[in-house]
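User: what does the whole thing look like in 3D?
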Amino acid sequence: MVTRAQVLGLVERGRSYEEAAGDLGITAGQAYMIATGTPADGSMALTPEERVRPGVLPESTQRLSNPPHVNPTVKPEVLAWIRERAARDLAQG
Amino acid sequence: MGVKTFLESWPVYRQLTGTDPLGRGEAAMSKKTANLTSRNTEADRVVKSVCPYCAVGCGQNVYVKDDKVIQIEGDPDSPISRGRLCPKGSASLQLTTGDARGQEVLYRRPYGTEWERLDLETAMDMVADRVLKAREETFVWDTEDGERVRRTMGIASLGGATLDNEENYLIKKLFTSLGIVQVENQARVCHSSTVAALGTSFGRGGGTTYLQDLQNADCIVIEGSNFAEAHPVGFQWVMEAKARGAKVIHIDPRFSRTSALADIFVPIRAGTDIVWLGALINYVIENDKYFRDYVVNYTNAATLVSEDFQDTEDLGGVFSGLDEESHAYNTDSWQYAGVKATAASGSRDSQYDARTTSAAPDDEPAPGPHFDETLQHPRSVFQVLKRHYSRYTWEMVEEICGVPRDQFEQVAQVITDNSNRDRTTAFAYAVGWTQHTVGVQYIRTASILQLLLGNIGRPGGGILALRGHASIQGSSDIPTLFDLLPGYIPMPKAHLSQSLANFIQADKADKGYWANLDKYLISLLKAWWGPNATADNDYAFDYLPRITGSHSTYDTVLEQLKGHCKGYFLMGQNPAVGSANAKMQRLAMSNLEWLVVRDFSLIESATWWKDGPEIESGELRTEEQGTEVFFFPAASHTEKSGSFTNTNRLLQWRFAAVEPSGEARSDLWFMYHLGKRIRARLAGSTDERDRPVLDLTWDYPTEGSHDEPIGEAVLAEINGWGADGKPLSTYEDLKADGTTSCGAWIYCGVYKDGVNQAARRKPAKEQTWVSPEWAWAWPANRRTLYSRASADPDGNPWSDRKALVWWDEAQGRWTGHDTPDFPPTKSPHFRPGPDDTGVDAISGIDPFILQSDGKGWLYTPVGLIDGPMPTHYEPQESPFDNLLYKQQRNPVRRAVEDKNNRYAPSGDQPGSDVYPYVVTTYRVTEHFTAGGMTRWLPYLAELQPAMFVEVSPELAAERKLDNAGWATIVTARGAIEARVLVTDRMSPLRVGGRTMHQIGMPYHWGPNGVTTGDAFNELSSLSLDPNVHIQEVKALAADIRPGRRPRGAARLRYVEGFQQRAGITALTGQET
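Assistant: Here's the predicted 3D structure for the full assembly of 1165 residues, as structure tokens:
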């Protein structure tokens, strides 16, 4: 079983959790859980002490345990449609 | 199994032979545990979403595998919810994937006794045909007085407030083009009071602050809300404040989980909050506890009121201008002296004639001083206010509210101790305030108090309107409301020879951002009618139908009962149990020619013809009912893309995770394809009546196998664009010459740079507590409204501890933690010249930039029609006389005379003792509004399995009620039964020298679903606030008796027996 020391050792040497997990044959979420004692999906409310544990990342860590997120903020076909509408609607303004 | 395998399955063997000699790790792991995987491991993607229940707007992660939703969890990145979901949100997987959802269109033919199957395409065609037929039969061009209205009263719609902004936009756009004015939604019955109250007080009808900012408060007053149970995830910010040392005060008729977590709980008689808040105002003024610099500079305290104004002190409880015969005020005498203010909200058309004549009085202000910054002038707003509230004393609080003096003074001291330069107090309320015949004035009272204390526009201050539906704020902003166009532009009222110029002249302000009404309206008209809106035709202004008085959802019911309204769309709304006087709602529907119900399941509004209470009583017979009913299954929040606007005014985009199955479709799909069918049928028409719908811009791109309109395209139209084809960045760019298009000016910027700003999801951990890059808030991504007031007149923060925005002299602009809600480069020392108008006329010390004088209004000279200052009136039904005035009730409330809408006698009137108790209502955490999204879910039904009634041990003893037994509750309208919960949460109060009991009931139930029960609204009446036509359901007079209610026709006789004993007639309760 992978130990906390193993994961933290890799992370302290500059490996990301994804890379460390690959090295150790586990998932990135598991690596984060083992290293920090907190779930990577953010489902635990952390105490101030837990927030500064070794290995805890300051940013969101959902990516370590979740499949890819779908959240596109740009839709090219809408931009094209806007241009058409503007040309048609506002020409007579 | 070999020997080795057998041995290795033995933990002790593994412990002794492996690397885990203590047996605390791998050695102790069973095979079952070793094979466990995360429930989300199998998902192939996570789609970002938002919970569809209350308006906290909790972030959701929707886990999808093979185009199936397999799990829904809280999104820890959300700065609002931080990963948490309440029981409803946690059950939303069952809501979206459970087997209670209808998948097929159903049809009930006229006089039919059963549902029939109908395919979606045929049903859509039939609805399109019926819309056009009803419109044809009922279309009216002019009133009898010759005023152009161009409308139909033959069709109405009522939507839920969990529809997306984009859906509401298409509903309003299509129906308006057809001439339908009776377009309403849940916001009417829930928070319409908020819009008028906060709008007239501060300029905008939205809450002034946001949930996360509560953490900055030093004191939080929760009144008219069970915050912890109705908005549980949002309540974490109250607890965050408490953990930082804030005091939490809860004032409510019932002890709840909110009370349990408060520092001070104050039980109060339902219907008396204006006395309580008015006494706090009196305390603040009398004890010099008001924030003088704030009050003098940022409120209208120094403004002088007209000499013609007479207060309730002068006239026995009413204001000057009351016409008792018409139950209405002439509000002219309430104006300021010399200068006429215009309203940013509420009634904005009242000066139409004066402002559209050539010699408008605004052009020539009367001579003489109009302000007194010493606040000593007897006609200054401050002195008028002081006099008005002088009789609101702690003695009155004791006598009327049932709150002892020491408790009142304790609260007053805590609030005032926490309201100054260094400290702020926030108020949070919900429908415990809004749903009264004086609902608007409840909120106004708190607004006055917060202005006096200097708590508006400051961190940890403000007034938070706790909205209870995912997009109830959005459904007011993009209003499916009869009296509004998008962005709170008033729906035009009918006038003789009304032109666009006249409308703008009458409704715009001379100063502030409402002076730009022409830019907002013309850009809207361009969005709706595109190339067909030109300067030559007043930008198609005449395509808008006109309103003539109230066409609220309750007026629609009356129109239906009269037979004037023939067709009705219900989209995510269940008035058969969820609206006041449920019986009248059902009887009105039974008078329709056709009814369209779009929902998840067969709610009571879809089945009243088959199994409603009137069928059981014999008042209706299915075989004799001619109403044609269409049931369309609706798509869930995971099956459509769109935005909700939460209680923070925050637009949060959801992405469709999967396509809806069967014949379920989004309301966006329904409206778009209904519109296409209607336009196809009218193609080639030369009838002028059809021009608005034929000229409508209705060409949205579609996607997916169902041809779903692309939600982002609708959002982009709402945002607006310029002639260069680029999305606009701010409403400051809008023009009145037809060169900009914008569907809702307050949402302009949500598609800035071609980016869906509402879809932004920068994790909370990666930005400041304001989280400006999580979604987008109106206006202009400002999170705290009126934040100019967080700085002193010179532009410096009132204190370091309470800094939010401030003037940076070196840069010549406002800066700070939030986007300043003020013209960014306007110096605090700027003072306008006499000829400046519009935005230019905003002074450097005018934080309320939508107000026509730039100030917070302690006194409303215009905009409200039941008084310029809140005044205590007893509810429509009350066991008590009004001890403050001889005027018992709001003299201009709307009381409806109908045989099914009788009122109980009040106070000392004979018969009032027949209904001796006060009933109030509330939510439970596990159910939602009228139950359509929760009563069908087994998870939630198990958690809250039955309708119940809460009574005190004392009342239980008085009426011989047994805990867990049955009780019958009866009012002048109806009788229902519920399980009895005897609890100290309901405590008797000492009011008017005697003990009074209150009864608490949730309102979620109805006869359909997994958990069933009688609907509270069988008890309630149509008695309405005159400003916004919201119903009074928070304080009714009732009796309670042990045992179950009579069934069938015997139930009617039971109610009639009470009416006879009370001597109730058609005139009871109708007095002015």
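In plain terms: Chain A has a mean pLDDT of 93. Chain A has six helices and one strand.
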